[in-house]
Amino acid sequence: MTKLLQDRVAIVTGSGRGLGRSHALELARHGARVVVNDIGACQPGSPAEGVVAEIKAMGGEAFAHDADVTKSTQVEDMVKQAVGKWGRVDILVNNAGILRDKSFAKMSLDDFRLVMDVHVMGAANCTHAVWNLMRAQNFGRIVMTTSSTGLYGNFGQANYGAAKMALVGLMQTLALEGERNNVRVNCLAPTAATAMTEELLTPEDLALLAATSVSPGLVALVTEDAPTRTILLAGAGGFEQAHITMTQGIYIKPEDLHAETLIARMAEVADRDGETVPATGFDQLRHEVAKARLQRQGSPDSALA
Fold first, then answer.
1. Do 241 and 183 contact (CB within 8 A), yes or no?
2. Residue 141: how many CB atoms within 10 A of its CB?
3. Which among 18, 54, 214, 268 is most buried, taking Cβ atoms within 10 Å?
4. Burial of 24 (0-12, 13-18, 19+ CB in 10 A)
5. What strands, in cross-sheet order, belong to the sheet with 9-12?
6. How many CB atoms lie within 10 A of CB 136?
């Protein structure tokens, strides 16, 4: 195996078990020094301590830290310890998360808030703690864990879906702000076996959804040549990329600018022929102003008319 991350320093939140554990081990196999973060990580015999032991057994370096990602002071201490031990932090994997699944009608706002706090504020706390450090060293790789639930929706997961799409928005802006200092920010949307999928898939198919089939995708998002602003989907050995696109849409003249006109032409608005991936949020503004200018200058009738 090529050591793609030799001597890089990585923090993986929620890495005592499951997907986080798989990520931590895969990073270590590629030469990274790893902070294994999890609630209760420093207790003797904890799952996180087990992951540390596995990494050391393969000749790697690791230590456990029990920071609660919703507590910024604890996160800052984790980063301080990593820097004190290894001098830097190169990679942050925001993996920690929880589920409180219920239909929205039955969901308490406390459960909605808790999921948002762990996923969104947890990622924000961890990212904020390493952000200026990464900028100063002109190198950083940050991965947000999003989900197909956030990208496409899933019954009974309004809180989780809202949190996971919020992380996409955070990634989009931080990738722009970090570009100047070689801080690249991406999203990983993993597919793994869950209690929900156990009822829908055969045991053979469930076996394909092992966490280890996702973690190579994580490595691809944190190497020297990693992309930025990428939403990578991964599961069962399959890898795809999601995009938030904008259709060409239509232009409605001022004298016809009524809701009824728009409603009658919504199929044209939705037409995906020629859709684009905006470079920034300002592209919507530029696109709409450009269409208006073309019409005011008396351009020939077109798809924009």
1. no
2. 25
3. 214
4. buried
5. 62-65, 33-37, 9-12, 91-94, 140-145, 183-190, 231-235, 238-242
6. 11
Cα first-last separation, the chain: 56
pLDDT digits (tens, 9 = 90+) for 236-268: 999 999 999 999 999 999 999 999 999 999 999
Q: In the chain, where does DSSP find H-type helix?
A: 18-29, 47-57, 72-86, 109-116, 122-137, 148-152, 158-178, 195-198, 203-208, 215-220, 259-264, 266-270, 282-296
pTM over 0.85: yes
Looking at residue 85, its amino acid is K
Rg (CA), the chain: 22
Q: Structure tokens of 239?
A: 């890898």
- Beta partners for 188? 145, 232
Taking residues 131-149, report their average pLDDT: 98
Which amino acid would we find at residue 205? Answer: D
State residue 196's pLDDT score: 55
Backbone phi, psi, residue 185, to 5°: -125, 130
Indicate if the alpha-carbon torsion angle 28, 30, 32, 36 is positive or negative. negative
CA nearest to 151, candidates 205, 110, 191, 183: 191
Q: Phi first, then psi: what are they for 99, rounded to 5°?
A: -120, 140
Query: What values do phi and psi take at 24, rounded to 5?
Result: -60, -45
The catalytic residues are 160
**Ranges of each domain in the chain:** 9-242, 254-296
Which pLDDT value is given to residue 301? 44
Contact 29, 58 (CB under 8 A): yes
Kindly report the CA angle at 149 between 147 and 154, in degrees rounded to 5? Answer: 160
Task: Tell me the CATH class for 9-242.
Answer: alpha beta
- Which tokens in the block code for residue 224? 């020297």
